[in-house]
Specification:
- With about 130 residues, this protein is mainly α.
- The chain has two domains: about 55 residues, no CATH class; about 70 residues.
- It is about 75% helix and about 0% strand.
- The protein has seven helices and no strands.
- Helix 1 crosses helix 3.
- The termini are far apart.
C-alpha cells in the first residue's frame, strides 16, 4: 500500500480514522520500508522541522472547542457552521472532536434524565400536599 507522508505523520499523531490506522499497522508488519519512513518522519519532527501545515494539524486549529460542540448539540449554530462541524467529524474523521462530541452528548442525556427524575420527585412531593387540602 502507498501512504503519503502526511498520512504517516497523522498516524504518529493518532489523528487518522481508526480504519486507516489499522491499515497502516497491518502494512507495518508486511512492509519493512514503511517502518523506516516512519522513523525518518519522526526524527525530522523531533529535529524541529515543521511546516505551517504540520503546525496547523498538530495544534488542531480547525477543531471546534467543547463549547462550540455544545452549541452544535443544542442546535443553535448557523446552518453553514453546523454543516462544517458535521463534515469535520463524519468525513474528515477527527477522532478528538468525535470523542468530545460523544462525551458532551452523554453528559447532555444524563442531565436530561436527572432533570426528569427531579421533576417527578417534585411532583410526587407536591401531590401529597394537594390531596390533603
Amino acid at each position: 500500500m502507498n501512504f503519503t507522508d502526511r498520512e504517516l505523520e497523522a498516524y504518529l499523531d493518532e489523528a487518522l480514522p481508526v480504519a486507516r490506522m489499522a491499515e497502516i499497522e497491518t502494512a507495518l508488519s508486511d512492509e519493512p520500508n514503511l517502518g523506516g519512513r516512519l522513523r525518518r518522519l519522526s526524527a525530522r519532527r523531533d529535529a524541529g522541522v515543521h511546516s505551517l501545515g504540520d503546525i496547523w494539524r498538530r495544534r488542531r486549529l480547525t477543531c471546534p472547542t467543547r463549547q462550540q460542540w455544545g452549541s452544535y448539540l443544542l442546535g443553535v449554530l448557523p446552518e453553514g457552521t453546523a454543516d462544517y462541524y458535521k463534515f469535520h467529524v463524519e468525513e474528515i474523521g477527527c477522532r478528538a472532536c468525535a470523542a468530545n462530541l460523544s462525551d458532551l452528548a452523554r453528559q447532555q442525556s444524563e442531565a436530561a434524565a436527572t432533570g426528569q427524575q427531579r421533576r417527578r420527585r417534585y411532583f410526587q412531593s407536591s401531590a401529597g400536599l394537594l390531596q390533603k387540602k
